[in-house]
Design a protein that fits this description.
- This protein has 100 residues and is mainly alpha-helical.
- Helix content is 57%, strand content 0%.
C-alpha cells in the first residue's frame, strides 16, 4: 500500500516535513538543520537532486508535477504550500478516489 493511500490528505505542513526529511537524507544533515525558507541551491541541491525530489513527490502523491516547479517555488516552504494546493485540487477533481 502506498503512502498516498494511507494518508487522508497532504497539508502544506505534512509536505514540508516530508521535503525536509528527504533533503536531510540527500545532504546528510538532520532535518532540523534544513532551513525551509532557504533556496534549494543554498541547500547544496543540484538540478538532478531537485528533479529526483519532484519525481518522488509524483510517486508519493500519485499525479504529475511540472518539472520546473522547484524553480517557480524555490524553497521548501513555497513548494510545500503550492503542492498542497495541487493535491487538494487533484483530490477534488477525482471524486470517489482517496485524497492524495
Amino acid at each position: 500500500m502506498s503512502v498516498a493511500s494511507q494518508t487522508p490528505a497532504w497539508s502544506a505542513d505534512a509536505l514540508e516535513d516530508w521535503l525536509l526529511e528527504r533533503i536531510a537524507r540527500l545532504t546528510s544533515v538532520a532535518p532540523a538543520a534544513v532551513d525551509p525558507e532557504a533556496p534549494f541551491v543554498s541547500l547544496n541541491l543540484d538540478s538532478v537532486a531537485v528533479m529526483d525530489i519532484v519525481v518522488a513527490l509524483e510517486d508519493l502523491l500519485g499525479f504529475e508535477i511540472e518539472s520546473t516547479i522547484a524553480w517557480d517555488y524555490p524553497t521548501v516552504r513555497l513548494l510545500s504550500g503550492h503542492i498542497a494546493g495541487l493535491a487538494a485540487r487533484q483530490a477534488a477533481a477525482t471524486p470517489g478516489q482517496p485524497p492524495c
